[in-house]
Design brief:
mainly beta, Elongation Factor Tu (Ef-tu), domain 3, two-stranded antiparallel ribbon, 10 strands, globular
């Protein structure tokens, strides 16, 4: 077992939205068959993502004990922070996705440098909900934060 660092990780998207979420979410091969080649540049922080279940409590009157069950789930969200550069094709695409008032789910690919070959890539579809600019203060680079709502299962596999 080895820990892998984030250095060298890259994220890509495609201008072609997923046309059928049910089909696109069926298997990792659906994502591997897509051209997801537009790199999103100058990423400072990927944030976190992953499936989370709702907790469903049940409390028996007889003894008052609370039982906890897994309920529905959400595949999460990702807060992507970048050094804003809208001449970057990937960043410009993300801003356009965020600005559009449609329901398009776009494919994403996240590659991790140095991970073992069977687990070096994540594939998922997401709605880009926002693109927010942060000027910061005197000694800051201008950053943008994109909020992605994961709208398909997250697949981990080989690139």
């Amino acid at each position: 077992m080895a820990v892998t660092g984030a250095l060298g990780a890259r994220m890509y998207t495609s201008a072609t939205p997923l046309s059928n979420l049910t089909t696109a979410a069926d298997a990792i091969s659906d994502f591997q068959g897509l051209t997801i080649a537009t790199e999103i540049g100058l990423i400072e922080n990927f944030g976190e993502f992953g499936r989370q279940f709702e907790m469903v409590p049940f409390q028996a009157v007889s003894d008052g004990r609370t039982f906890k069950l897994k309920g529905g789930f959400n595949d999460g969200q990702m807060t992507l922070v970048v050094g804003q550069d809208l001449s970057d094709t990937g960043q410009a695409a993300m801003k356009a996705y965020a600005d559009a008032s449609n329901q398009n789910t776009y494919p994403f690919k996240l590659t991790i440098s140095g991970a073992d070959a069977a687990h070096d890539t994540y594939y998922f579809g997401a709605l880009v909900m926002s693109w927010r600019v942060n000027l910061g203060s005197v000694n800051n680079a201008i950053r943008a934060t994109a909020m992605l709502e994961v709208n398909t299962p997250i697949f981990e596999g080989a690139s």
